[in-house]
Structure formats: C-alpha cells, structure tokens
Amino acid sequence: GQQLNQSPQSMFIQEGEDVSMNCTSSSIFNTWLWYKQDPGEGPVLLIALYKAGELTSNGRLTAQFGITRKDSFLNISASIPSDVGIYFCAGGNAGGTSYGKLTFGQGTILTVHP
Amino acid sequence: EPEVTQTPSHQVTQMGQEVILRCVPISNHLYFYWYRQILGQKVEFLVSFYNNEISEKSEIFDDQFSVERPDGSNFTLKIRSTKLEDSAMYFCASQKPGLETQYFGPGTRLLVL
C-alpha cells in the first residue's frame, strides 16, 4: 500500500523559533492534509491542500503541496508553548477506487520550551 | 462549529466480548470512516462508508468487524469477538461531498483484557 515518510520524528525547540516538517511518498496523492493531535484526543485539521504547487497559510502555519504530488511540508513560525503536540501529514486520493481513504505519516512530536 | 462526536470515550472489555463504538458524524456529511491508532503509532485506515454500504476496507477490517448506519445520525463500528491486539484508539471521521477534508471525532479508547 501507499506509505508516507514523515520527518523529523521529533523536535525540541525554544519558544519563538520556526519549525519545519515534511512528508514524502513514493506514490502521488491528490490531497495533502496536516493534522495536530493532542494526547488522548482526535486529530484536528490544520491545513488542507488540494492542488499541486499550492501554498496555503493558516495564521502562523504555512503548508505546501509539492509539484510532484509526492511531498508536502508544514512550517510553523514563531512557535509558542501551545504548539506542543503531534503533527501528522495525511495523503488522500479520492476518486477511482479509494473513496477518500487517508494514509497517515508516522507523526512529528513537537516540544516547545518556554 | 459542528463536530464529530463519539461514545463512549473509554471502553474496557474482556477478550472475546463484543463491543460497539458509536459515532455521530457532522450532519451534512455523506462519507464516513473509521480509523484506529495503536498507542504511540500512526493513524490507520479501517473502513469507508458511503450510500449505506462499505466503499473500501483495509486488511485490518476482517470478518470480526462490521459497520452500520442504523438511522440518519449514528454510525457504528462493531467488533464481534475482541482480541488483545484490538486495544487502540478508534476514531470516526466524516467528510462533506466535494471536498476531500475529513473531520475526526475525539476517539474511543478501547482496552481489551
């Protein structure tokens, strides 16, 4: 099946620093989504990307859908303590036989030191 | 803002028992999903459901699993005879037609003893 490689696995940063994480795949996706998960809770959607090359921002978050459709990155600028959590990328391929199933990356654990 | 809700939040059961996990998707959504997440691991797709039937299922979703939309609002996942390895967080998600954006519920933590 399709696999997503997400890196880095974990990051320890100081408050105020910028953060970058990315996902790569050996196969293409039509949609890239970025989620944040707090302990014991469900993934919360941060940014959705629908077109190759698309660059989208949501406050301090910026994400891009790679031109090849095989990668995406998420940047967080000026991190704050509440950014702590696990960030997941997810790729989707609605249409054909997949009916929108999402394939998730392994997650990036972000720790922000005040 | 509309949310996906799930009940119960926690479920402890004995191996071999049946469990039913319940979800109420967002009201105008038409595509429904179940995912699971074993502790410390990534989220894995189980099954998708559209127009009152299963659209796609993963290898994990074997004969012990079933899904149902018994009325206009609930979407359930049943595990007939639970195994130790079924212990995980189970997430329901729903999606509006036309946009491939899935919204997740808070999850049910299932512990099989």
Structural class of chain B: mainly beta
Structural class based on helices, strands and sheet pairing of chain A: mainly beta
- Give the strand tally of chain B: 11
From N to C, what is the helix and strand string of chain A? EEEEEEEEEEE
Radius of gyration of chain A: 14 Å
Give the integer mean of the pLDDT values of chain B.
93
How many helices of chain A? Answer: 0
Task: Provide the succession of SSEs of chain B.
Answer: EEEEEEEEEEE
Terminal Cα span of chain B: 37 Å
Strand content of chain A: over 45%
What's the average pLDDT of chain A? 92
DSSP helix fraction of chain B? under 10%
What is the fold's blueprint, element by element?
The complex is a heterodimer of chains A (114) and B (113).
Chain A: E1 4-7, E2 10-14, E3 19-25, E4 31-37, E5 44-49, E6 55-58, E7 61-65, E8 71-76, E9 85-92, E10 102-104, E11 108-113
Parallel strand pairs in A: 2-11
Antiparallel strand pairs in A: 1-3, 3-8, 4-5, 4-9, 6-7, 7-8, 9-10, 9-11
Chain B: E1 5-7, E2 10-13, E3 19-24, E4 31-37, E5 44-50, E6 53-57, E7 65-68, E8 75-79, E9 88-95, E10 102-104, E11 108-112
Parallel strand pairs in B: 2-11
Antiparallel strand pairs in B: 1-3, 3-8, 4-5, 4-9, 5-6, 7-8, 9-10, 9-11
Question: How would you briefly describe this protein structure?
Answer:
The complex is a heterodimer of chains A (114) and B (113). With 114 residues, chain A is mainly β. Chain A is built from no helices and 11 strands.
Structural description of this entry:
The complex is a heterodimer of chains A (114) and B (113). Chain A is mainly beta. Helix content of chain A is 0%, strand content 54%. Chain A is built from no helices and 11 strands. Chain A is globular. The termini of chain A are far apart. With 113 residues, chain B is mainly beta. Chain B has no helices and 11 strands. Chain B has strands at residues 5-7, 10-13, 19-24, 31-37, 44-50, 53-57, 65-68, 75-79, 88-95, 102-104, 108-112. In chain B, the strands form 2 sheets. In chain B, strands 2, 4, 5, 6, 9, 10 and 11 form a 7-stranded mixed sheet that branches. Chain B has a 4-stranded antiparallel sheet with strand order 1-3-8-7, with no helix packed on it. Chain B starts with a strand and ends with a strand. The model of chain B has no long low-confidence stretch (mean pLDDT 93).
